[in-house]
Give the backbone structure.
Amino acid sequence: MKPYVVGIDIGGTNTVFGIVDARGTVIASSSIKTAKHPKIEDYIDELYNEVTRLIVANDAVDKINGIGVGAPNANYFTGMIENAPNLIWRGAIPLQQLLEDKFQIPVVITNDANAAAIGEMTYGAARGLKDFIMITLGTGVGSGIVVNGQLVYGHDGFAGELGHMIVKRNNGRLCGCGRSGCLEAYCSATGVARTAREFLEIRTEPSLLRNIPIDQITSKDVYDAAMQGDKLAKDVFEFTGTILGEALADMTVFSSPEAFILFGGLAKSGDLLLKPLKTAMDKSMLNIFKGKPKVLLSELKEADAAVLGASALGWEAKPAE
Amino acid sequence: MKPYVVGIDIGGTNTVFGIVDARGTVIASSSIKTAKHPKIEDYIDELYNEVTRLIVANDAVDKINGIGVGAPNANYFTGMIENAPNLIWRGAIPLQQLLEDKFQIPVVITNDANAAAIGEMTYGAARGLKDFIMITLGTGVGSGIVVNGQLVYGHDGFAGELGHMIVKRNNGRLCGCGRSGCLEAYCSATGVARTAREFLEIRTEPSLLRNIPIDQITSKDVYDAAMQGDKLAKDVFEFTGTILGEALADMTVFSSPEAFILFGGLAKSGDLLLKPLKTAMDKSMLNIFKGKPKVLLSELKEADAAVLGASALGWEAKPAE
């Protein structure tokens, strides 16, 4: 096996990439703008040029075992990106094929949350765990499920959309997916801001958050206010943590994971989120699972995590036949 | 590999067992009363005597590859039955060890719903499927989840308790597990009877079910009334199918199965259950999964299914080291 892998994380705004060694050290990294090229071929060209420059500069030519790519709606089985709402290319993009043709290096793609789970299993908090669920709490809520040491891709490659579990069956919030009551509508950064707005409208008590125009409140504002002791802001986290804890208990009846691993901005809220989460999770847990699943935080540095997660896929890349 | 396996299905009332060949033919079967022996050792003795009698009578001595056992709360990893509410033996019973010591044949145990899933995968509707979820609709609701061709046991061996997904977070029915709002409290045979009682109390219209003492109504009564065109009874199935369909859509975001396979008394209700189920499932389905998971009925004959499911485990039994 060659000593390095390349990780590429394709986000709506930036594409970040890096060269990673077997111990999870990011040797070098860089980025390009994702949305600059309306034509996917032009994007692939620039990406190829910049990644190659990095490989050459770090004396890694012919030392790359594989390229791992994390991208929204990327399908591990088909190698396609299909109708990703955050990307400018429409329809089905044969991303894996385009990259392999260009780089002449084996490429594996999967969605961002699955990449995060594999990264955590390879280099982070999930090392040695065979059954765990990664929950990414960002703008949305993503998930990667590992059962018996293997990522769960399901029949079509799209399994692990736990952000779209229904947590409020009646009168739930509208979700970006078009349905109502999804976990993501409550427990994402966006969800926290929505809860804050709801609380501010329904309740009359003073709050630091009333100093901010209501439509500009972010989850960071809610966190800052809560850390200053703001009651309403703390209640927002209590509400969010409770819903997430109940959802984790519900996920447990499915795959009985050894641990849940939380990643993303909200996961850094500390006890504000984790205390109500653990209380609700324990209270809602089916008896036989009570006290079993741990709640861990990601051990990957946020700046490196996306590249590390994607890169971990590069170790399973096999040369095309 | 030897040509036969023995399947043993331990229920609260009866223990059914049989000799099965590789094509899923039950060569011979018999049963004993489970609850007759307060001491587990006496039960094992009788079971051994009766199974051995069957083996000898069918010229199968030294031809048994393994013994598979399906039992409530049986743990595949530990080989123990732990605190099964329907069995008379309390505490932790080392069932696998007791049986292996007695029979001197390798034994594998798992819970009934997992055994059903393996049976369906080996001999039934799930042949060739690598990702499916088996739902058993009996007195309770059980499940066996198969991902990438493997049964999901989870970290502790107890995964796949989908009957205890919360389908009504607020004001849900009390479940046998002590919590409220579980799928099982609605979509089991017992759940159907409870719904009928609720509807009879809340509504005033005439119904054939009013001829039966309300506390004696069974799911079979509701089925019979619905088949005679009784509106209230049909509404009970509409309600039950809708909740089950919504739950199946929710399960899909987890493992994106190719199919759900329904088994048990209620699964035989035909369109009464399946029509509202499919409508609700389709309506509640996350876009990327819409129209994908099939809903299939078990292909195992009910009389043979428990023994077949358990027996299928006997093919994976390995001699003790």
The interface with chain A takes residues 73, 130-131, 145, 147-148, 150, 152-162, 164-169, 177-179, 246, 250-251, 253-258, 284, 286-289, 292-293 of chain B (CB under 8 Å). The first strand of chain B starts at residue 4 and ends at 10. The radius of gyration of chain B is 20 Å.
